[in-house]
Amino acid sequence: MTLSAKSIMLAAASTMFVMAASTAAATPIITNIGADLSTSPYTFTYMGSSFTFGSNGQLFTGPITVSTANGGEINTTFGEPSAYFPDRGTVSFGPGMNFAAFPTETAIRFSNGENYFGLRAVTNTGTFYGFAYSSDNILNTIGFETVADATITATTMAGAVPEPATWAMMIGGIGMVGGAMRRRRVSTKVSFA
Predict the structure, then answer these.
(1) 8 A C-beta contact, residue 106 and residue 58
(2) Is residue 36 part of a domain?
């Protein structure tokens, strides 16, 4: 099967259009935090809404605590702040879910291990959904949707991808070590007593 230059250009143009359309729709802002909550609480503000994460050191009742102010809210189940586990699939936060404000420090049950927490910033210009991602007492990442009333899908920060030059140096180094090991002659003398 042969592809003409025209069909390749048409496919490339349609791909670029789809990418541009999806980018214009909603672009979340995801920030790597890395705050150790066991040493001190961490407060951040999005669109004027305030969120404070801390740690109470209680493993079974939930080591991570949260308090909110100025329109900040966290996703709830049965009126309590909720934790979602990343190994149970993709987690999305948006309209139709339960959120509540917590003006005083409140423990988030089952927040040991890796967790997502749904966040909502209620402002005069709209409602913005976000998430926080933690590992035990470390607040790893926060993210917020930039479009009002748009659902956000919780994702972790992607690790750095090595550049091609880094890969080339690594492969070259492994090859040189292998070549040196192959050329090295070891003389072994066996003697019997």
Answers:
(1) no
(2) yes
